[in-house]
UniProtKB/TrEMBL annotation:
<dbReference type="Pfam" id="PF01053">
    <property type="entry name" value="Cys_Met_Meta_PP"/>
</dbReference>
<protein>
    <recommendedName>
        <fullName>cystathionine gamma-lyase</fullName>
        <ecNumber>4.4.1.1</ecNumber>
    </recommendedName>
</protein>
<dbReference type="GO" id="GO:0016829">
    <property type="term" value="F:lyase activity"/>
</dbReference>
<keyword id="KW-0198">Cysteine biosynthesis</keyword>
<dbReference type="InterPro" id="IPR015424">
    <property type="entry name" value="PyrdxlP-dep_Trfase"/>
</dbReference>
<comment type="similarity">
    <text>Belongs to the trans-sulfuration enzymes family.</text>
</comment>
<keyword id="KW-0663">Pyridoxal phosphate</keyword>
<keyword id="KW-0456">Lyase</keyword>
<keyword id="KW-0028">Amino-acid biosynthesis</keyword>
<dbReference type="InterPro" id="IPR015421">
    <property type="entry name" value="PyrdxlP-dep_Trfase_major"/>
</dbReference>
<dbReference type="InterPro" id="IPR015422">
    <property type="entry name" value="PyrdxlP-dep_Trfase_small"/>
</dbReference>
<comment type="pathway">
    <text>Amino-acid biosynthesis; L-cysteine biosynthesis; L-cysteine from L-homocysteine and L-serine: step 2/2.</text>
</comment>
<dbReference type="InterPro" id="IPR000277">
    <property type="entry name" value="Cys/Met-Metab_PyrdxlP-dep_enz"/>
</dbReference>
Length: 415
């Protein structure tokens, strides 16, 4: 049975947790070892598990692709943090997306926001079509959704909020209420905010997905993905595919990502506070054309921030347009001393990149600019360093990027 054929049966919600986020992050899926009392779970590297008689495993496990203790514990922690009954882990965020798309029957139609993550766009346009799943992209999904839904064909709506790299927001509840009238499921990619800042299932989403590679692991040393949801039907279908396709993370990666997850609340709070400082610093600079940050009151969808994000937090990601074009954007990224010029996001260390020439270079310029991705756009991932040091680093890099070349040209007499 393909996903979507059952429409959506409004599954029972996960029970309201007794404990708050920080307590869940540290304790959910973290039982003490019943034999040794070890407070931290051992890494269970065995690929196979003994059986006492044919078909009777000694414990819960048979073969590691199907399940293993470290993945089970990590999945339990993700489910708790996303207010979900179930969670499944995959070998990357991209494998999570692929597995969800694979669950659709041939001939299914999907509606997606336009500025999805580049790898998601690539899968939708170059891979899903090969098994007969077609995707329509919409730049303003809240307005267009009713028109874009094809009766009986549309099975899934795909949202990323905030979007990458322009940080525009989608009102999840507004989209979900239209989708649900037609029996269509809503997926939200929550990578940019992490479960600490936003819990999409609480706003009507049916599946929340993460590139665990980013905030959840948080230390830029694991590639992994996860999906969380409440429906037992979805659990049966997606756990079947998790095992059948086999795009699963190693026990070691599950253990590392679980360790990272235990400090998610501390890291997300600090990254968000730092991003707020950096956004205000940029906004006040004469060298900056515009700042995209959901935490600023001037963000066009700030009302959605207040409605969907914990305490109106803006998250750790922002982008801005620098004066002086692509050259200035590139010089800025080379002039920062604390922010490293690199792709990716959500780690303890701050990163900067130029989407037009790096993460989004594959998208034709016209399409890119229509989505707000100009050549002078710089994307910033704030880490958890000291906010005052980040502020000073941004200010000195702006001076070097915008003013610097003129002065040095003058001094050197060269052009
Ligand atoms: C990185 C990312 C992905 C893909 O995840 P991988 O773990 O790199 O495969 C998907 N969505 C968003 C928003 C991302 O940032």
């Amino acid at each position: 049975m393909a996903l979507g054929e059952h429409s959506i049966e409004t599954p029972p919600r996960a029970p309201s947790p007794v404990h708050r986020f920080g307590t869940l992050a540290v304790h959910a899926g973290s039982p003490h070892d019943p034999v040794t009392g070890a407070v931290i779970e051992p890494i269970s590297l065995s690929t196979t598990f003994a059986q006492s008689s044919v078909g009777k495993p000694v414990g819960l496990y048979e073969y590691t692709r199907s399940s293993n203790p470290n993945r089970d514990n990590f999945e339990a922690a993700i489910a708790a943090l996303e207010h979900a009954r179930y969670a499944l882990a995959f070998s990357s965020g991209s494998a999570t997306t692929a597995t969800i798309l694979q669950s659709l029957a041939a001939g299914s139609h999907v509606v997606s926001i336009s500025d999805v993550y580049g790898g998601t766009h690539r899968y939708f346009t170059k891979v899903a079509a090969a098994h007969g799943v077609h995707v329509t992209f919409s730049p303003s999904i809240e307005i267009e959704i009713s028109e874009l839904i094809r009766p009986d064909e549309t099975k899934l709506i795909w949202i990323e909020t905030p979007s990458n790299p322009t940080l525009s927001l989608v009102d999840i509840r507004a989209v979900a209420s239209v989708a649900h009238q037609h029996g269509i499921m809503v997926v939200v990619d929550n990578t940019f905010l992490s479960p600490y800042v936003q819990n999409p299932l609480d706003h009507g989403a049916d599946i929340v997905v993460h590139s665990v590679t980013k905030y959840i692991n948080g230390h830029s040393d694991v590639l992994m993905g996860a999906a969380a949801f409440n429906s037992p039907t979805l659990y049966d279908r997606l756990s079947f595919l998790q095992n059948a396709i086999g795009a699963v993370p190693s026990a070691f990666d599950c253990w590392l990502a679980h360790r990272g997850l235990k400090t998610l609340h501390l890291r997300a709070r600090e990254a968000s506070a730092n991003a707020a400082v950096v956004a205000q610093t940029l906004k006040a600079s004469a060298h900056v054309i515009a700042v995209n940050y959901p935490g600023l009151a001037s963000h066009p969808q700030h009302a959605v921030t207040l409605k969907q994000h914990r305490n109106g937090m803006g998250g750790g990601m922002l982008s801005f347009r620098i004066r002086g074009g692509q050259g200035a954007a590139e010089r800025f990224c080379q002039a920062t001393k604390i922010f490293t010029l690199a792709e990716s996001l959500g780690g303890v260390e701050s990163l900067v990149e130029v989407p037009g020439s790096m993460t989004h270079a594959g998208i034709p310029r016209e399409q890119r600019e229509a989505a707000g991705v100009f050549d002078d756009l710089v994307r910033v991932s704030c880490g958890i360093e000291d906010g005052e040091d980040l502020r000073k680093d941004v200010l000195q890099a702006l001076e070097k990027a915008v003013v610097g070349p003129k002065i040095s040209n003058g001094v050197n007499g060269s052009v």
